[in-house]
């Protein structure tokens, strides 16, 4: 209890129990409220309660200020979009200079937004005009070429006809010629034309639709434009064709105009006269040069403005977010009836009391308040939030536990044990010191580049791996350790700790994989003897070893979980859970599987040939039968009978007494409405963790059914959970066999061809298979199985996980929330 009542600043970090919490009330004069909340945000050790939960956001005191901050945040988001669009990146860290006045910042942001918006509008108009002139110039060039070639062709044809007619001597020719001339003059038709550009992908459909709409009474000519153009309307880059359409009549013209509009064709008018066309090209080129100069000057000014914004963007953004969070917190405070002070309530760690009081005193001094803030601790029956102070090493392990459920206030935290057991169980399934070294190299890269990578935006998978770099570090170190025990380096054994204890029966070793080996030296000092590799007894031996080892590890971890339930019961002063949960559970589990673990160890030590399956099965079916050759130690039969009886007795021991005792306890406490006040911490400790059946409506049937479910779950779970730990054996075997297959069937097979190309291909396939299957998929598989063993098999023995996290008001978390 002494540790739980410690005071002062920053006591040593204790992960086994969450920090002692207290509900505090702070009465703040209204003139110092802003600075008080700001200083508490810098401190980050107080979680405010919302005392205005019944009010809508618009009914709260500081709704106007929050609206103002929201408007500034909108302007900053607009700036951010413009910066990203222009390829600027805001400074990684805000440069904190002089304190920024929020009112001045609001005016400045408004001016910058107006200036930037105006520049964008003007720039878009200029760019649209520029793109239109580019297209106009292209139309003048292409159509000018068409008109020039058409005029040359017509002139040449006319001369040819005149020269042909000069040689005709017929008398009728002049008469017919005059008649035709008179007819042509009376029936002469004026042709109109339209020019423009149409997207190339729509050009064929455009031509087809015009032909059908006018029934073929048009002449259309298209010419492709070599470069990609920016469309003046949409602003998108696209390939286009210049077209010219000759038509007759207004109806045909109207139809063509509608088709041009439907296909997004931009139309431009040009003169028929070639001289005027040349003059227009000159004018357009001059306008383009002027527009280009204007646009370039505008872009330089725009770029300078964005650079100025980018230099101060993070500082402005942080200021606005701080301002908004302060007023949001102030809206959670209750306004006193005198309207001269605000009342705040919230949770804080006990050790932070002095720091909070110092912050309140500083705020009162800095705001020149005549009255200081009042800080007092409240008595409550509410369950406090859970707060573990973690660092970058312990944080990912705590997150693994919190993903299952946040610890109840001050119950034993599995995160302490997870730091060792999680990477170790992973390594049991992943044991290969070659693969472990590969994981270690990747992890060391993350750790060495920690500062650089933490400030960069990583991909989802990379960011997840980087966040768990210290988990992977321990996983890789334990994998190297278990790999040395299994004596596997990419499935290849090495004589690292001395020579093998076995030799072949003959010089050729032809019987090594069939008949076996002969032991000639002392046992291999550490891990598996390399001589087992490749023999006929390798798989049966490893299966037996790893299966028994899995049971031993599983029973040990489940016993640890039950022992932690004892410490929880003692800590919360719940003697019922000690006598009617911890003791019968320990008896039941160890009467069965604790005894099995003992038999495994005795069999290993004595070298007995006893059948453990037979012993365990007939221990229940025929407990009085003679054991014969399966006897491992004297009086074994009597011990087994006693253990079976204890296991049978422990089931009703768990089931029956606790509900009746709780009922009796409830009847004794009935009518006692008032209890004497205790000290703050003791009051919190007892009230927060007292059994919920104490003063609430007591339903005996509900309590009994709950206890029945709990008992059945534990009895069946003892068997299923022990069997579940056999996944350690299964995954270890799968990893070893996959590694062996890749080595023998890919690398050695490629080596045997004595061909360099095949060898290179084999090495590449081996590397990709090792990385893809063994270092990625197998790592993920072993990680998930280790996670399941901790969440289900270990934590369900003691961990309730129905608490809620401590989320203090802190400016330090603003960056994380923004990301």
Automatic annotation (TrEMBL):
Q: Which domain of life does the UniProt lineage start with?
A: Eukaryota
- Record's subcellular location: Membrane
The biological process GO terms on file are: vacuolar acidification
Per its record, what are the GO molecular function terms? Answer: ATPase binding; proton-transporting ATPase activity, rotational mechanism
Cellular component, GO annotation: vacuolar proton-transporting V-type ATPase, V0 domain
Task: Give me the segments passing through the membrane.
Answer: 424-448, 469-486, 549-567, 579-602, 638-656, 756-777
Main site of residence? Answer: membrane
Question: Keywords, A to Z?
Answer: Coiled coil, Hydrogen ion transport, Ion transport, Membrane, Transmembrane, Transmembrane helix, Transport
Q: What is stated as this protein's family in its record?
A: Belongs to the V-ATPase 116 kDa subunit family.
What protein name does the entry list? V-type proton ATPase subunit a
């Amino acid at each position: 209890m002494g540790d739980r009542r410690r005071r002062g600043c920053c006591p040593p970090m204790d992960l086994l129990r969450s920090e002692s919490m207290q509900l505090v009330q702070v009465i703040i004069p209204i003139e110092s409220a802003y600075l008080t909340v700001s200083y508490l945000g810098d401190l980050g050790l107080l979680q405010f309660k919302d005392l205005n939960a019944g009010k809508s956001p618009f009914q709260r005191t500081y709704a106007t200020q929050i609206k103002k901050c929201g408007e500034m945040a909108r302007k900053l988001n607009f700036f951010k979009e413009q910066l990203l669009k222009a390829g600027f990146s805001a400074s990684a860290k805000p440069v904190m200079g002089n304190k920024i006045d929020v009112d001045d910042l609001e005016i400045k942001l408004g001016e910058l937004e107006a200036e930037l918006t105006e520049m964008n509008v003007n720039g878009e108009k200029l760019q649209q005009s520029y793109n239109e002139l580019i297209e106009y110039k292209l139309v003048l060039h292409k159509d000018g070429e068409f008109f020039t070639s058409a005029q040359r062709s017509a002139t040449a044809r006319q001369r040819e006809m005149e020269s042909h007619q000069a040689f005709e001597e017929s008398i009728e020719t002049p008469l017919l010629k005059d008649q035709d001339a008179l007819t042509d003059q009376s029936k002469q038709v004026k042709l109109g034309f339209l020019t423009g550009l149409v997207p190339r992908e729509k050009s064929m459909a455009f031509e087809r639709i015009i032909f059908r709409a006018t029934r073929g009474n048009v002449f259309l000519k298209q010419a492709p434009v070599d470069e990609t153009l920016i469309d003046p309307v949409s602003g998108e880059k696209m390939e286009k064709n210049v077209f010219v359409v000759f038509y007759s009549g207004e109806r045909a013209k109207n139809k063509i105009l509608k088709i041009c509009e439907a296909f997004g064709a931009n139309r431009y008018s040009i003169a028929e006269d070639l001289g005027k066309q040349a003059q227009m090209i000159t004018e357009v080129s001059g306008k383009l040069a002027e527009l280009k100069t204007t646009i370039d000057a505008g872009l330089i000014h725009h770029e300078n403005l964005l650079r100025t914004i980018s230099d101060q963007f993070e500082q402005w953004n942080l200021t606005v977010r701080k301002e908004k969070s302060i007023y949001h917190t102030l809206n959670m405070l209750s306004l006193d009836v005198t309207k001269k002070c605000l009342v705040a309530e919230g949770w804080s760690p006990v050790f932070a009391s002095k720091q909070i009081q110092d912050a309140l005193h500083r705020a009162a001094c800095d705001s020149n308040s005549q009255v200081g803030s009042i800080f007092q601790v409240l008595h409550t029956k509410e369950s406090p939030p859970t707060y573990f102070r973690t660092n970058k090493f312990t944080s990912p392990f705590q997150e693994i536990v919190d993903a299952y459920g946040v610890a109840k206030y001050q119950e034993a935290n599995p995160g302490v044990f997870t730091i060792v057991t999680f990477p170790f169980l992973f390594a049991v399934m992943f044991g290969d010191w070659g693969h472990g070294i590969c994981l270690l190299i990747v992890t060391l890269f993350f750790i060495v580049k920690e500062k650089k990578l933490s400030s960069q935006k990583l991909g989802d998978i990379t960011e997840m791996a980087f966040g768990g770099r210290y988990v992977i570090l321990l996983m890789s170190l334990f994998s190297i350790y278990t790999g040395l025990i299994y004596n596997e380096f990419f499935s290849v054994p090495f004589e690292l700790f001395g020579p093998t204890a076995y030799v072949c029966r003959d010089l050729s070793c032809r019987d090594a994989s069939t008949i076996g080996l002969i032991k000639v030296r002392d046992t291999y000092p550490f891990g598996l003897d390399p001589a087992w590799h490749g023999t006929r007894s390798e798989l049966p031996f490893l299966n037996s070893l790893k299966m028994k080892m899995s049971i031993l590890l599983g029973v040990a971890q489940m016993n640890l979980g039950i022992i932690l339930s004892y410490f929880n019961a003692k800590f919360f002063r719940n003697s019922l859970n000690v006598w009617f949960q911890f003791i019968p559970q320990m008896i039941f589990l160890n009467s069965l599987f604790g005894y099995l673990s003992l038999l495994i160890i005795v069999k290993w030590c004595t070298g007995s040939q006893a059948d453990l399956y037979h012993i365990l099965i007939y221990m229940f079916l025929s407990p009085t039968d003679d054991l014969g050759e399966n006897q491992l130690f004297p009086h074994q039969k009597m011990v087994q009978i006693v253990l079976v009886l204890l296991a049978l007795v422990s089931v009703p021991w768990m089931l029956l007494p606790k509900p009746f005792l709780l009922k009796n306890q409830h009847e004794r406490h009935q009518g006692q409405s008032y209890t004497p006040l205790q000290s703050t911490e003791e009051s919190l400790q007892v009230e927060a963790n007292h059994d919920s059946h104490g003063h609430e409506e007591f339903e005996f049937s509900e309590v009994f059914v709950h206890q029945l479910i709990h008992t059945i779950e534990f009895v069946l779970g003892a068997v299923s959970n022990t069997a579940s730990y056999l996944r350690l054996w299964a995954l270890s075997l799968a990893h070893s066999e996959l590694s062996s297959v890749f080595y023998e069937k890919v690398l050695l097979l490629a080596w045997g061809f004595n061909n360099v190309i095949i060898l290179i291909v084999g090495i590449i396939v081996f590397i990709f298979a090792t990385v893809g299957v063994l270092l990625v998929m197998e790592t993920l598989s072993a990680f998930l199985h280790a996670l399941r063993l901790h969440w289900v098999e270990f934590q369900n023995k003691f961990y309730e996980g129905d608490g809620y996290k401590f989320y203090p008001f802190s400016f330090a978390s603003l960056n994380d929330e923004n990301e």
